[in-house]
Amino acid sequence: MKPTAAIDAFWKRFVKFQGIDNRPCPIAFYFCDNRHDADTCAALVVAGIKQATAPSQWWFDKHKETLPCIGEYFVVTNCDGEPQAVIQTTAVLVVPFGQVDDAFAYAEGEDDRSLAEWQQVHRSYYAREMGCDKSEITDDFAVVCHHFHCVYFG
Fold it and tell me: Percentage of residues in the chain with pLDDT exceeding 90?
């Protein structure tokens, strides 16, 4: 999403708070594909519970986007595009769906934080994203395991 005046002001408050060099506002985004989940995930980030996310490699390829880099900042918004937090990437790994582990599912912080729930929810999400049947999301489907820390909220 393109930075709005509210996102830009939020970023400027973060830069001042951290005492870092003034730099351009980073990419802003919300999690998931619906209001309830986007707003819930943003709240989980602010609470320090959600510390990872798992976009598909397919999404990055389709949108010709590069993978996040360690140290890179992002602004997390709610579904309405209102800034909620600044996160900083701590690790990025591309792994097959079938190799996502319990620790990663727990770090995502959603639902009951179990791997079984993670697999069910994400198989459905990726299928919606790609417009395919969830049976097509096989164990070798590439998942970008993006770890981050919330470094600012307000």
Answer: 95
pLDDT digits (tens, 9 = 90+) for 97-113: 999 999 999 999 999 99
93: containing domain = 5-153
Residue 154, pLDDT > 90, answer: no
Phi and psi at 87, nearest 5°, equal: -115, 155
DSSP alpha helix (H) spans, 72-145: 102-108, 115-130
**At 89, which CATH number?**
3.10.400.10
CA 69 – CA 137 distance, rounded (Å):
26
| Structural domains counted in the chain | 1
Contact between residue 77 and residue 29 where contact means Cβ atoms under 8 Å apart: yes
Mean pLDDT score, 42-48 = 99
Taking 3-state DSSP, the helix, strand and coil percentages for the chain, each rounded to the nearest 5, stand at 40, 25, 35
1 by Cβ neighbours in 10 Å (0-12 / 13-18 / 19+) ranks as exposed
